[in-house]
Each structure stands twice: as structure tokens, then as C-alpha cells.
Amino acid sequence: MTVTCDLTITLDGYAAGHRQTEQRPFGDDGGDGWGDRLHAWYGEGREEHPDEFDRMLTAKAFIMGRNMFGPVRGPWDRPWTGWWGDEPPYHGPVFVLTHHPREPQPMAGGTTFHFVTDGIEAAMDRAREAAGDGGISVHGGATTVNQYLAAGLIDELRLHVAPFTLGAGVRLFDGVPPLNLEQLDARSTPSVTHLRYRVLR
Amino acid sequence: MTVTCDLTITLDGYAAGHRQTEQRPFGDDGGDGWGDRLHAWYGEGREEHPDEFDRMLTAKAFIMGRNMFGPVRGPWDRPWTGWWGDEPPYHGPVFVLTHHPREPQPMAGGTTFHFVTDGIEAAMDRAREAAGDGGISVHGGATTVNQYLAAGLIDELRLHVAPFTLGAGVRLFDGVPPLNLEQLDARSTPSVTHLRYRVLR
Ligand SMILES: NC(=O)c1ccc[n+]([C@@H]2O[C@H](COP(=O)([O-])OP(=O)(O)OC[C@H]3O[C@@H](n4cnc5c(N)ncnc54)[C@H](OP(=O)(O)O)[C@@H]3O)[C@@H](O)[C@H]2O)c1
Ligand SMILES: NC(=O)c1ccc[n+]([C@@H]2O[C@H](COP(=O)([O-])OP(=O)(O)OC[C@H]3O[C@@H](n4cnc5c(N)ncnc54)[C@H](OP(=O)(O)O)[C@@H]3O)[C@@H](O)[C@H]2O)c1
């Protein structure tokens, strides 16, 4: 089974700004609504980006960081079940990395959020077990992706590069030791360039 | 006339490592010969990358930083006429940014290196005058490119992205305020992805 990672970044490599809040989940570095600009391609949907949507949907288990899951920091002091409404698009187990334990959160449509407090390898082991022969998707943010890249646990990196720079924020590859990659393909549309790489060992 | 910039970078945005020397012009961050790996596409030549070579050759005046010109730092304490032998590939005026004055250096084939000590705008003015209706190419390294990007003086950015990361060095966009770009095209080959952007004002 393949471990893939999809991440949308600015041309200068940022996946999010600093100072994320519930009102500004992507932080305040790019001004109001810059997250929408970053993810414009996503809003254009499957029609415009068929390969990319197909590939993202094939994973059987997902891993994400707690900041991607939501804006709650520190102890879980209020109900929060993700940004995606009652029926999240995952339809399978999602392992959320956090230092703050919490009971699993089942949702409609087969998604369950599991909160993993014993680190990235433990989360990967649980995802492998859940995925069986299926794929695993490391889903972001960059803080999480960088840890998995540094640990050599990602097989395929799919970057979606938006045509602007941010200048500050949480940067993909920050602190990750040098990687060798094999280029698989590149395709540009007005809103994004899709780049696909195999990570070599 | 259009001001273009061609720069080859790693997937994490580095154009050079730290601690550049005559033996290791790209610095020592990527180990021996990593600069060759970065510029592998360039070695493959016009046959494999016709559009990119054609575009680079059309400029009528060039601007580069002193570190791209050579390994001499501080006062010009020894003869140095560039990395490119007696007949450099520029065939026109090349304006080299430096804090250390030096007489112009004419070379075979129409290249003359001019040393500009009064800053990026002065170098651009001289390049404009020399180029007439022709194009101007800001040729690197990243320290120079970043200054021109920050000053809003580049019209078209052509990045050649090599399929590996470096993790440290001189990074494109470092310290450059946010830019809006219009994506022109993307093309991948096994050794490099060519990305082309118009810089919007
Ligand atoms: N551009 C994209 O494609 C994309 C994709 C996803 C998300 N995003 C955006 O990126 C931002 C979130 O990314 P991010 O990089 O800030 O954070 P993130 O990776 O989503 O989450 C980081 C948090 O997860 C927990 N965590 C991470 N690794 C851990 C470990 N090994 N052990 C225990 N807990 C761990 C920690 O939370 P605690 O210590 O608080 O528990 C940490 O602060 C959001 O703005 C989101 O909207 C963008
Ligand atoms: N990846 C690529 O496509 C590519 C392209 C070109 C070069 N490179 C590599 O990149 C490295 C050089 O890049 P770099 O970013 O280190 O340096 P650079 O931009 O080539 O040169 C920087 C130097 O130019 C002078 N300079 C720059 N701006 C100036 C200004 N406004 N006023 C006066 N002087 C100014 C300064 O030299 P002084 O103060 O010493 O005079 C400064 O240290 C080399 O390793 C080269 O091989 C890579």
C-alpha cells in the first residue's frame, strides 16, 4: 500500500500562515480569505482536476495534524468535530495527531476521527492496520507532513502549487533533511500547477 | 522590453548552498557536485529543452550578482573573468552587481562584464539603455533575483525546478514581500520541471 501526501502550497512553499484562528483557519499572513485563494483549484472541483480528485479519494485511511482538524488549541475545551460538517469527505478512519487525548469521534458517512497522542509512527501503524491493502493519505498541515517526510514514511508527494507567494508561515520542507525525488508529472491550469513526485530512499 | 528571470532551484526553493568557493561554486550544503545535479537539465542542452534555451538566448542585456560571476569576495585581489572561458555565452553586456569597483572586462564574442556599484536600479537603467528594444535577463543568483522581485522589476519568472530538496542555502523569495503571479505554463522532464509565470502588479 502506498503512502501519499497531497498538499497545496504557495510558490514559495507555504501551506498556512501564522496565527490560525477559527475565523482565519489559514492564519493571517495572507490577509482575509487568502486560504480560499490557495485552495481555489479545490473549489473548481473534479471537473477541472479529475486526476487529482480521483487520486485523493482512493485512500482508505487518513492522517492529519490537529491544526488541520480545527482551531482548538490546548485542552479540548469545547465541542469540535472538524471543518467538514456532519458528513466529512473521508468516509474512513482519520488519525489526528495531538498531545491532547480525546475519545474517537464517529461521524456520518463512515468517517471516524481518532486522536493519536503517541506520535507519527503510532499513527502510521494504526492507519496501516485500518487501510489493509488500501492507500494511506497524509493530509496536512505542513507541520505533520514535514515530520513524515523527515521520517521517510511518504512514498508519493503531490504538490498543488498556487500562483502567488506568501513570504511567511508554515513552510513545507522546513527542517526536513535533503530528499531525492523522481518526477512523475506536472500539469498547469490557471489556478494551480500539479506536481507529482515519488520519494526515493 | 521584457525583464525576465531564469533561475534553477531545488523543490524547496534553493538556488545555491552556503559557503561557496572556487572548487564548489554552489556551496557545500548539497555535498560534492550537487550543482551539477541542480543544473542537469542545462547539461542536456537545447535538444531536450528547446523553448527554455531559445528564451534565454533572446535577451540583449544581462544582470547578475557578483557571486554568480565568480568566487572572489572582498577586493578584486586576483584576475577573474567569469566561469565561462574566453567566450562567454552572453554575447552582449553583462552588468555585475558588486560593492567593489572594477574596470569593464571585455571578452571574445561580444560579451563585456560591467561592474555596477550603485545598486540594482542603476544596473537596470544601464541594462535598459544597452538593450534598446531587446529583452533584459536577470540571471541570478537568488540574492540578486530577490532584490529585483522585491523592487517589482521583473516581468516574467521562469523557474526550473530540480527534483530534490537541499534543506539549506540561498533561497528564492527569501525576504520578498508577497507576489501575485499569472501562471503561463508548466512542463516536466525527468530532470526538471519548467514553470513560467508573469509577475502581476
Ligand atoms: N495547504 C494545504 O493543503 C493544507 C492542508 C492541510 C491544512 N492546511 C492548513 O494548515 C494549517 C495547519 O497546519 P499546521 O502545519 O499548522 O499544523 P498541523 O500539522 O495540521 O497540526 C499541528 C499540530 O498537530 C499536533 N501534532 C503534530 N505532530 C504531532 C506529534 N508528533 N505528536 C503529537 N501531536 C502532534 C500538535 O497539536 P497539539 O500539540 O495542539 O495537540 C501540533 O501543533 C491550517 O491552517 C490548515 O487549514 C493547509
Ligand atoms: N540556480 C541557479 O540558476 C543559479 C544561477 C546563478 C547563480 N547560481 C549560484 O548562486 C550562487 C550565487 O548566488 P548568491 O545568491 O549567493 O549571490 P549573487 O546574487 O550572485 O551575488 C551576491 C553578491 O553580489 C553583490 N551584490 C548583490 N546585490 C548588490 C547590490 N544591490 N549592490 C552592490 N552589490 C550587490 C554582493 O557582492 P559584493 O558585496 O561582494 O560585491 C553580493 O554578495 C553561486 O553559487 C552560483 O553558482 C545559481
UniProtKB/TrEMBL annotation, chains A, B:
InterPro entries: DHFR-like_dom_sf, RibDG_C, Riboflavin_Biosynth_HTPR
Transmembrane segments: none
One term of GO molecular function: 5-amino-6-(5-phosphoribosylamino)uracil reductase activity
Pfam families on file: RibD_C
GO biological process: riboflavin biosynthetic process
Tree of life domain: Bacteria
Start and end residues of each Bacterial bifunctional deaminase-reductase C-terminal domain: 2-191
PANTHER family: BIFUNCTIONAL DEAMINASE-REDUCTASE DOMAIN PROTEIN, DIHYDROFOLATE REDUCTASE FAMILY PROTEIN (AFU_ORTHOLOGUE AFUA_8G06820)
Protein name in the entry: Riboflavin biosynthesis protein RibD
Record organism: Amycolatopsis eburnea
Source organism phylogeny: Bacteria, Bacillati, Actinomycetota, Actinomycetes, Pseudonocardiales
